[in-house]
Amino acid sequence: MNHTLFTNRSLLTLGPGVSVRQLAAILEPKELALPWGGCPGVKMGGYLQGGGEGNAQRVLGLGLDHVKGVDIVLANATLRKNVSASFHSDLFWALRGGGGPGGNFGIVTAFHLQPIPNPAPMGVLYFGIAVAPGDEALEAAERFFAPSPVAFNGHLKIVLGPEGGGVGIGGWWVGDLSEGHEFLDSLTAGLSSANSSIATMSLYEAGKTDFDGQQWPNNVALAGSHSLQVIQRPTRANLVAMLQAATTAPPLLASLGEAKLFTFLAGDKINEPARNATAFVHRSSLADMTIGFVLYNGTSQATKRLATEFDRWALTFYNDVLISNFGAPLQAAGPFEVYANYVDTSLQQPLVRN
Prior knowledge:
Layout: E1 4-8, E2 11-14, H1 20-27, E3 32-33, H2 44-49, H3 57-60, E4 67-73, E5 79-83, H4 89-95, E6 107-113, E7 116-117, E8 124-131, H5 135-145, E9 152-159, E10 167-173, H6 177-188, E11 195-201, H7 203-207, E12 220-230, H8 236-246, E13 257-265, E14 287-295, H9 301-326, E15 327-329, E16 351-353
Antiparallel strand pairs: 1-2, 2-6, 3-7, 4-5, 4-6, 8-10, 8-11, 9-10, 9-13, 12-14, 12-15, 12-16, 13-14
Helix pairs in contact: 5-8, 8-9
């Protein structure tokens, strides 16, 4: 499941158990690249079947767009080698973006990928910006959603709860480094509460670095997530409603867990294929927004009660604030499109990673 093989410089075969970190290490000596995100431990099986979103997606597109073939064992135990655009094309379409966490259509044993030359030979800027709650947080959120260069592959993070309302902006700048510094300076200009950190590293180092430096403890419960597609730039009133409502979430004690609203910029390279070219349906979105929280001890009764309480609040926040102010849910738009949603605790108990 962790095997890799270069048949030539233009085609890489790898197993579904290969992680983002391992993929970056494989491609570095050859100065090649593929889209990868900011969670190095994520494995290719779920990542590619779910779409392959990442911290360089505005420049490189989605991971699934680089998949040229798939080896898969079907439910009837039949092995299909190199399912592609010309061999079982309907299955190939479904496997790219319709697989969610993986396994919806069979057991993938290998992906055949086409890497590209490293688009950032001089490195990337790995950045994080924190802005305190209040007027400056609102200003920072407005700047995040304003039109920006394709090199800006950013995400907006809002902590949910009574002590929330502040914003964080993080991600990668994949392009000219001097232009990147100028742009990042413009995000914080005049914001006295802004704290910034910027590191220059190779694209491969960025692929091996944990998203926001987060190290999850063991026994984490993925305790809820609701997602939507942002289809137009929000107004100031939209952002005010979001930031004010964020502080009404039930408190999550630091020892028990944390809750955040993430918004990842999309568009640009993602938009180039037709919307229905694969089973990944939200190519035309401006950004993707997700409510999620984790609980550090997913098996305790206290955290299970907290999960239920928070998820009730999150569903109301999702429907009454986010949907009405930002866009539409991620959902099928036609008979040949699908979307595999994130884990939703209204459907089942929180998942626990031991």
